[in-house]
Amino acid sequence: MIDDDASMRSSLSRMLINCGYTVNVFERPEDFIEQSIPVSPAAILLDMRMPTMTGTELQKRLNELGRNTPIIFISGESLPHEIVIAMKQGAIDFLFKPFNLDDLLKAIASAIEKDKEVFKVTTQSMTVTQRYESLTPREKQVCALLVDGLMNKDIAVCLGTTDATIKVHKSRVMEKMQADSLQDLVRFLALVKVSS
């Protein structure tokens, strides 16, 4: 939680701890940037109005740093354009002070679910990318042509080799990529392209 209001930090962190959450509090956005350690799953509760930096400025800075933890804005007052900017930059929710605890808990649960999903996709992407990187240059060529829908004999013609050699390469590609079908291979290669 990043909020310059000490009483808000204190009461909100106490309530969230009572609800079973681990809470880290920061008075200034700069402290958060310098001291926080990215963890997942998590959510950031972010005040809009702070003396040194607005909430949307911090949000933009976090996006630039590749910190994609879902953000829930909490604000005593905000202009419509600030809300629009916050949402366009990926905020999960926007709650006005004083807000209902149930609304906050729902927003946090939603943000944490989103963060879990992003973490799962990122982890899967990294694993698939590592598998892809284990392919030899020739296996990568065969893999790309398989995903393009070419048959073994057509791949052999493209690469100037025999059908039997392509079958061996295809078998290695499927094994290294841990793909049970061509559909799996297509899906995995899409993940590699997304993460690269």
What does this structure look like?
The structure is a single chain. The protein is mainly alpha-helical. It has helices at residues 6-18, 29-35, 55-64, 80-88, 101-133, 137-147, 152-159, 163-177, 182-195, and strands spanning 44-47, 71-75, 93-96. Strands 1-2-3 form a three-stranded parallel sheet, sandwiched between helices. The longest helix has 33 residues, at 101-133. 24% of the residues are buried.
Helix/strand layout:
Blueprint: H1 6-18, H2 29-35, E1 44-47, H3 55-64, E2 71-75, H4 80-88, E3 93-96, H5 101-133, H6 137-147, H7 152-159, H8 163-177, H9 182-195
Parallel strand pairs: 1-2, 2-3
Helix pairs in contact: 5-9, 6-8, 6-9, 7-8
Can I get a quick summary?
The chain has 196 residues and is mainly alpha-helical. It has 9 helices and 3 strands.
Number of DSSP strands? 3
Helix and strand pattern? HHEHEHEHHHHH
Radius of gyration: 24 Å
In angstroms, what separates the terminal alpha carbons? 32 Å
Q: Tell me about the biggest sheet?
A: 3 strands, parallel
The dominant shape is elongated
If helices are DSSP runs of H or I spanning 4 or more residues, what is the number of helices? 9
Mean pLDDT: 92
* Model regions low in confidence, pLDDT < 50 over at least 5 residues: none
Provide the β-strand percentage band: 5-15%
Query: Considering DSSP H and I runs of 4 or more, what fraction of the residues is helical?
Result: 55-70%
- Arrangement of strands in the largest sheet: 1-2-3
Structural category: mainly alpha
